[in-house]
Amino acid sequence: MAPHRSKDPVPVLGPPALGKQKILDLLKFRPIDFAEIQKSLRENAEEAAKVKIGENKVEFSGRSLLGTLSRDAGIIKDGMRVSSAIAERSDGDFFYLLVSNFALSSTTVEEVRMHFPKGARVKIKHPRALCTAKGRVIIEIHNPMYIDFLGIEVPDGLTVEKIWEEASAALEKKDYVRAIHLLTRCVDEEGYKNKVEALSKRCQAWLGLNCYERAFEDAKRAHVVDSTHRHTYLLKGQLFLGLQKFRAALDSFYRSGLADDDTMKRCARLIEQRDTGNYELREFILGKSKAPEVGDYLGPVRMGMAADEEKGRGLFATEEIKAGQLLLVWNAAAVAPREDLPAKLMRKCLTSRKSLFQFLGLDSELAMEMGLFKPTNVLIHDQQQDYIWFDAVPAIAKLCSSYAFQIEDKPESPMGLWTLPALINHSCVPNVSQQMVGTALFVRAARNIRAEEELTLPYMDVKKPLDERMYWTDSRWGFTCKCLRCRVEARLHAQRPEFPCFHARMREAAKRKDRAEALEELRRIAVEVEDQIATLASPVERDWVRTSYYSAYRAGFLERSSDSPAKLSSRVSAYQMMAALHATCPGYGIVREMVALAKSALPSPGMEAISEKSRSLIEKECLCVLGEQKREFLDVFVDELLKGADFDILRT
Ligand SMILES: [Zn+2]
């Protein structure tokens, strides 16, 4: 399946970008108390009433509120917010707390209670307070990272041994946040004898939350105290797997002496894939097995500035590349329904600083740092860098809308974000193809690529007329495509008034109720387009234009009626149309169109023996999508295609 850019923006709950000065103000975090919030809201309400601005919200930029989560957390499905209550330690009264961009439609109450445990001491940075009609105060947080957890209440006088027991019980119950807070008490206890065990268990709890970077810190600390601690090696193996450091994972599993055979084999397989770029996908391609686990792979690709300044950064080939060669394998940062994507990305950031920097880097100069995208590089938690969070919500909203891909061309289709492939710029004559294998994206050369050539892919279906392509690039992504194909077609449009009319007529035809009439008109358009381009000297320019009006040609070749005159096929053959598609947008859902075109040239429908040259062209197209495959495999695959098999990997 080949995902493509979404044509609709992604909704996010959040305030507008804050700006630098405000961020600096925020860093000071002067404390604020409950009484002050009440007072401000009251004054604000009076002000609001005077000038009739209505909304009664107070932002305490640069302030922080200390309190305890005093109620069990829950989910407000409307807008997917987490609700809880925050109270001062000894004060019976409480404020409601609402946290946006954390809950997903699949989030359970148990899960939010684990992340927002009752009894946790919290510091809420930059609160926004508002008053309900009933006079209840609500503290709104749009960025889950605005909450610092300072620990969990334990009864006074509890011995460290007792805390240890509670922590172990919490870990057993997979209550990871609670376990982490309790274990922190043990770790921090002066002269505590079980320090290695406590660090090791806390590492395990971080792992349970998928916080690999934090887990890594604890594993390192545990091994400083006791470099032979075997259980910590086992955990290290797991966290290195999560961080995609497969060699280190294998080494740690080996040292632990506790890992099973399957785990060791799994590491070895992932190492081999990454070293060779050989991913065994045959069973998956044929739909006989589910997607295999794959690690990220970075081929001969570098980041750079596109020649067209409007496009900004892009990816470039660092060497000469043959069609079909694998360039990138990239696991999704997140795949989720449209409305869940921002929250899912926020949660990814909560657990991984590398992800955070990759996301934010998409919108700034940070990502010029290719090291950030090296699969084996690990970023370690750094308190100094926390300020970047203040702009995270608007930045993530923006990058969801700009960079996320829609998996299928349907409004309800899930969306995904693949950080490095997201930097590939658009062209209407793309040179790379992309396929989803599970939630990993495989990016391949769809034609031969020169060293230092920019990699490009289409942001939308480019088998469309120039005007329609321009409409989408302008209105949705805010740029004008200046690819060679667009320039050639723009010139034709300027010279010949027929071209803009073809598009208008195609749109009119699509609206007709009588399908036979609509098809007849489309066939007429294809014939006229063909007459217009007959005088073009360059064969590839003819191919581009044919592809632009493909829906008209399609009506001519694939939806012929017995009485329609063969005007089109006397001008251009089905094979030429196949070649036009392959020359214009190889790798983009055209295999099945090509098969249909090849079959349309046969004297009777249902015959499978298409011409040698058609078959060889289809094989070439398969190379762009599947990469180099063994002869026997390709034969089986193409035979199945001709028999009408519908392979998932070819869907768009
Ligand atoms: Zn273009």
TrEMBL record:
Residues 301-460 form the SET domain. PROSITE patterns: SET. SMART domains: SET. It holds the Pfam family SET. PANTHER family: TPR DOMAIN PROTEIN (AFU_ORTHOLOGUE AFUA_5G12710). This is SET domain-containing protein. It comes from Selaginella moellendorffii (Spikemoss).
